[in-house]
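User: Predict the structure for this protein chain, please.
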Amino acid sequence: MTTATPSAPQQTRPVPQALLDALGARFGAQYSSAQAVREQHGRDEGSISAPPPAAVVFAESTQDVQDAVRLAAQHGVPVIAYGAGSSLEGHLLAVQGGISIDVGRMNQVLSINADDLTVTAQPGITRKQLNEAIKDSGLFFPIDPGADASIGGMAATRASGTNAVRYGTMRENVLALEVVTASGEVIRTGTRAKKSSAGYDLTRLMVGSEGTLGIFTEVTLRLYPLPEAVSAAICSFPSIEAAVRTVIQTIQLGVPIARVELIDANSVRMVNAHSKLTLREEPLLLMEFHGSPAGVREQAETVQDIAQEWGGQAFEWASTPEERTRLWTARHNAYFAAVQSRPGCRAISTDTCVPISRLADCLLESVQEANASGIPYFLVGHVGDGNFHFGYLIDPDDADERARAEALNHRLVARALSMGGTCTGEHGVGIHKMGFLLDEAGSGAVDMMRAIKQALDPQNILNPGKIFAL
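Assistant: Here is the predicted structure, written as structure tokens:
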């Protein structure tokens, strides 16, 4: 397996004063070179550090993005799109210098087409803002990566999250895009139609490209009717294996469960302390069912029967929105609960995904290794689709701890790949997993990706130094 180098230095490109002066003249108060602003746009939630960008442009329109990219292109200077800053693999870091284009102010819903179950929005709108804006339509957007990420960032990293087992990922739910290219041209990909056979699928090419092929300025999404009935449940298990076997059997029986999350005992303790809950400190499944009242009841009864076969106990039901929100907020805060459990630490995160039939093997071997390492960790997983996350909690100033955590990460990824899985189920490649991508896809496929990048971005100014090296 290739050895990834998550903090490997890259050649920084100069940012001419002439460009900074031109940006300041064009954008006025929408431009900043203040140190605090630059530092805010030079870090994400991951464990990798890099110098901040030279300046930040706060775009408020497609024209703003166009003008910023065109000015940068004239000087061959990198541009990095910035949404909510919630990425984990170094996607927004200015590893080759350059400027940051913050699209957070581009946060409007442009059109809701309720009859067609679609919505078009600007990229800076977050998933919570989007669902608040469309709630009166009786529809919702289900993709939920946990953090209140921007829709543009979610599309760029091909995000998924807790609902993916039923509703899919951003790949299946982005229908069309408006994109500013490396030359500053605006193109549109896809339509609101449910299907098309017209030419190359540029929408799918752009979704997951991590800002390396274009900057999104509009995103058209698939919506879903709000379910008539929703019920959530938690169930504790005597072991991780029992919990995972319950999930595997549920999926293989075709139960249309909406969410099923695994939280290990370590993480339950952290969540209890952070969110002031009293959950049993044992491996836990957190489940949610969507549908008609009768359908939800039937799904829940089936899963409860399966869980009991594997020793599941202490079923607790949450039928009111308030009860469900309490549980899911605790789950979504698991990352922050873990980080706070060791003050000053940083988390080296993994997000491998394997075929559901290999989930138990992959998880159990990885848990055994993590326990033997002595490094504090947390484990959560969207296990309904074979996706799980370890977070190794390290002292960022302890080189030995970092090396041991990275070694755990490398072995976990190698294990997932050997089982027909992937190095990243939803976080994306960024910087951290560049070596792993080569292991997974092979040199021929990565060379094809490079050829696409070089054709669409010959100056290599769009988020350079991510996914693969040029």
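The first strand starts at residue 31 and ends at 32.
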